[in-house]
Write a structure and sequence with these properties.
2 helices, about 70 residues, elongated, mainly alpha, about 0% strand
């Protein structure tokens, strides 16, 4: 009777990786269109655009501050 609890102990541990493998194999295929890979990013161009956007924002902010100051005065 004492050996009854040990019967499936080792085999259950051996089965666990197989269950994981089966779960991965049975995963459903993705639905919808398969998109092509994204083109490579040119970080130099990205940074130039980012700097330009920040400069534009700063100029806009200054112009709005000047407008507000002119209205108050």
């Amino acid at each position: 009777m004492a050996s009854r609890g040990r019967r499936g102990g080792a085999s259950a541990r051996e089965d666990e990786p197989r269950r994981d493998d089966q779960a991965e194999q049975q995963a459903p295929a993705p639905r919808g269109p398969v998109l092509p890979p994204l083109p490579p990013v040119d970080y130099g161009v990205f940074m130039q655009g980012l700097v330009q956007a920040m400069q534009t924002q700063a100029h806009t902010q200054e112009a709005l501050k000047a407008q507000l100051k002119a209205q108050v005065d």
